[in-house]
Amino acid sequence: MKQFALAAALLAFAANGALACSQSEFSEKVQSFSSKLTALAQKNPQKAQEISQKVQKEAPQAKGLDDTCKKYDEWIAAVDKAS
């Protein structure tokens, strides 16, 4: 029962935007992506270039801060996978 109550509370917070990406979280994601991509470029320049092209293609499609944060999560995961 406690798990159900916790899940319901999390859904309520999410619906109200309490779990939305903040400007500081966005900045952290940008910095993390940048440093990881730089490290990947030193190890595997071709893969780093592929990810950069993907970012250039997908970035204009992001709508708003929350969507952009989700994109950065995807891009960070791609860099982590390639590393």
Q: What would you note in describing this structure?
A:
This protein has about 80 residues and is mainly α. The protein is about 80% helix and about 0% strand. It has helices at about 1-15, 25-45, 45-60, 65-80. Helix 2 (about 25-45) runs antiparallel to helix 3 (about 45-60), helix 2 (about 25-45) runs parallel beside helix 4 and helix 3 runs antiparallel to helix 4 (about 65-80). Mean pLDDT is about 80; it is low at about 1-20.
Record the SSE blueprint.
Layout: H1 2-15, H2 23-43, H3 45-58, H4 64-82
List keywords for this structure.
mainly alpha, disordered N terminus, 83 residues
Distance between the termini: 42 Å
Task: Please give the count of helices.
Answer: 4
Strand content: under 5%
Q: In sequence order, what are the helices and strands, one letter per element?
A: HHHH
Rg result: 16 Å
Pairing-aware structural class of the strands and helices? mainly alpha
Biggest sheet features: none
Helix content: over 70%
